[in-house]
Design brief:
Layout: H1 2-15, H2 23-29, E1 33-39, H3 43-56, E2 61-67, E3 82-85, H4 92-102, E4 107-111, E5 116-117, H5 121-126, E6 134-143, E7 150-152, E8 155-158, E9 162-165, E10 181-182, E11 189-193, H6 194-200, H7 209-222, E12 226-237, H8 244-262, H9 264-281, H10 287-298, H11 305-322, H12 343-350
């Protein structure tokens, strides 16, 4: 059945009528989008993602599958998909960073294995990159089993250490209009302006998969870039359970990494309240023991805050070098007329 879905996707892709473009249009839009899928095992999830992408991707789009683990390509998709093995055995962020170095698109769509897309999901997101201040577009992530239920309309982060999935559990029709600003995207699906990522620094390999996109989002926001929610760009994601120990460990580590950036006094005060509330939710054993162990072990990351502050400073200096204060920079070639780029957005246009 899976083979049939893949061959159907290829048939649709090969024989679907494509719009005729002039040479000028080809120069402007070829490889504008690169779809980057990191693979760390579970071929069924990868193949489900590839089926939906091959059926629905826009024209002139490259698909990169970065193989952190071995995959044999049983359906011989090499003509449609580039399978690129990493030099070493790496984690998810390593796969994404390796793929970024190979991607030719102006916009890179990071899509986790298991995520599935529908027709037109990329077109509505790409339009936001006409505004050079936009570095990231967050698709609306919905439950694969209940597509009318929202998993995340972007993510937010409170100084006390609370990562929030925006509008989690709401019905899709009740989501905010297109163009609303959010702090960051759900890590499983995000569109990025490649030049913006290169300006502020790639994904941090020391941050967990759950927090990697948020870590990058904080740096992008510090550099005055924007992340935009696009509800009409929908990605279906299967549910996944996470253990209490791992969840607590990753949350605590991330808190200590960024507490100084949000202010020590405010962060520590709010963190105490958040720990009390989160601990009550984990009250029953054995979850409370795993949660406590994870929080205590996560405190060892307290010294990482200086490294994060240094990365913010480096990102700010990188943008300053791209756009001197007294320099007027033209918008990129696909910018909307009349949009005045921010300093960071202008930097993206220069890249």
């Amino acid at each position: 059945m899976l083979a049939g879905r893949i061959f159907h996707g290829l048939f649709v892709r090969l024989f679907k009528r494509q719009p005729v473009s002039t040479l000028r249009e080809e120069i402007t839009y070829v490889s504008r989008l690169s779809i980057l899928i990191p693979y760390l095992g579970n071929p069924t999830l990868l193949e489900n993602t590839l089926v939906s992408v091959l059926e629905n991707r826009p024209a002139d789009t490259e698909i990169l599958v970065v193989l952190g683990r071995y995959y044999e390509d049983p359906y011989d998709l090499g003509d449609e998909v580039q399978f690129v093995p990493t030099p070493n055995r790496v984690a998810l962020t390593g796969c994404v960073n390796f793929g970024l170095s190979l991607a030719r698109g102006e916009v890179v769509h990071v899509l986790f294995s298991g995520a599935e897309v529908a027709e037109g999901w990329a077109d509505s997101a790409l339009g936001h990159f006409d505004n050079p201040s936009v570095a990231c577009v967050a698709p609306l992530v919905v439950d694969a089993h209940v597509p009318t239920r929202v998993v995340a309309a972007g993510v937010d982060y409170l100084a006390g250490g609370n990562l929030q999935l925006v509008d989690h559990g709401k019905a899709v029709p009740g989501i905010a209009r297109s163009g609303a600003s959010v702090l960051g995207p759900h890590p499983a699906a995000a569109f990025y302006r490649k030049s913006a990522i290169l300006a502020v620094g790639r994904f941090d390999g020391e941050v967990s998969d759950r927090y990697g996109a948020l870590d990058l989002a904080i740096r992008l926001k510090h550099a005055n870039y924007r992340t935009i929610l696009e509800p009409s760009s929908q990605v279906r994601l299967p549910s996944e359970r996470e253990g209490a120990f791992r969840r607590a460990l990753e949350a605590e580590r991330f808190f200590w990494r960024w507490a100084a950036h949000f202010g020590w006094g405010r962060s520590l005060a709010l963190h105490a309240f958040y720990l009390a509330a989160d601990g009550c939710r984990m009250f029953w054993p054995p979850r409370i023991f795993a949660w406590t162990a994870g929080r205590l072990l996560g405190c060892l990351a307290i010294g990482d805050h200086q490294r994060c502050l240094d990365r913010l400073k480096e990102a700010e200096e990188a943008v300053e070098r791209l756009v001197p204060r007294d320099m007027t920079v033209a918008a990129p070639r696909f910018a909307v007329a009349g949009v005045r780029p921010s300093r960071a957005g202008a930097a993206a246009g220069q890249r």
